Amino acid sequence: MLFTQGRYSGFITPLSYIMDLLVVNLFTNFLPINFQNPLLFHSYITLAWVVLSFKNEFYEVHRYSKVVALLRKLFTQFIFFFLILYAYIGFFKQPLMSRLALGQYFVLVFVGVAFFKFLSYVLLMQYRGLWKGNIRRVVIIGKNSKTDQLIQVFNEREEFGYEFVKQFDAKGKNFDIMSCFMFIVNNNIDEIYCSVSEMSNKKLNAFINFADNNLKTLKFLPDNKNIFSKKLKFEYYDYLPILSLRDIPLHNSVNAVLKRAFDIAFSLFVIFGILIWLGPLLALLITLESRGPVFFIQKRTGFDNREFQCFKFRSMAVNESSDLMQAGKNDMRVTKIGKFIRKSSIDELPQFYNVLFGNMSVVGPRPHMLKHTDEYASRVDKYMLRHFVKPGITGLAQIRGYRGEIEKESDIQNRIKFDIFYVENWSFFLDLKIIVQTVLNAIRGEEKAY
């Protein structure tokens, strides 16, 4: 749909279309592409852009969309646009067209569209956050930990443009559904968020009918204890609707090949670009400070719960408890050079050999010691789900601050929460985001890297 609900939102997508189509068409004038029929070319690329945009949902950018989502849309859109652009030469038999100029045109269009897309994204965020424009007034039906988290998001992420108005306790003694409906109408509420776990079927149907009849947007918060907490795929068997749990993205062969190809290329880059000269230097410093091997090799749990040998630069004096106890703050076992390489995460670099050998990936849930796998599997719900993919040198939990020593129960629970989110929501651009954030964290130094 070109127009969406909202006071100003209906103009955003059409304006974006117009701006991008101007870029796509006007930039042809800056390069000697040698058209034989300019009108045919402009008609071709305009139609191709519109069709691709619908197919790739290029303009389906929501107020809560992340930068990673924008990058994914740009990547998908321009991969197909590149193929269609060069297909014009053969399809319409254009031997005089300059391939080089056409490539330069493609780059210019990519830069122009990306610039305007991110500019509009940032300006809209600023408009909502600073100027309180394009606001959605919302109410929440239900009172539990999930609704509390949602209220926190509405209050803290002002750039999303949500104004939290009121919360109704659906299980409270004084809850009256008709009074709730009157409040929504009288206070110009735009969106209603219902906690599924606190609503009976009768109440859910009442809210659905009310929202439909009063042009209100109705959304649901799933209960983590039931099937609706999962991503669901809606399919038809003949005319019968079927809901099924969505497959793990990395179980798709195309995604697995893409990730593996990136792992091999990136690990070779690190091995021959960094480890080839840094390794001997660190080996000398480690050996001079304390007796023992240069590398610390430890059995850890990997993909499909299989054991593998994980490599690290040795950062501790040789001790008998290394396989039983994690390093803690001010740990006496850590050497002077060990403190530095642990703080900067340089001790993890040999794991790129694990990546090259296929035991690990650049990004994924961090592999745990065998002892910890046995311990957490019995006490942390859904812990074993993290072994559906290869373990990583870095991961989503690590860039969110959950790395190193497990000091309290919430540390491991939050770590597993992020690990499971990564497993169920993997994308190539999410991997790139995690890698960039890991490098930035390593440069700054991390609080729990000890």
UniProtKB/TrEMBL annotation:
InterPro entries: Bact_transf (IPR003362), EPS_sugar_tfrase (IPR017475). It is found in: Membrane. It holds the Pfam family Bac_transf. It comes from the Bacteria. Keywords: Membrane, Transferase, Transmembrane, Transmembrane helix. One of its GO terms (molecular function) is transferase activity. The keyword Transmembrane helix applies. Residues 259-443 form the Bacterial sugar transferase domain. Its main location: membrane. NCBIfam families: EPS_sugtrans. This is Colanic acid biosysnthesis UDP-glucose lipid carrier transferase.
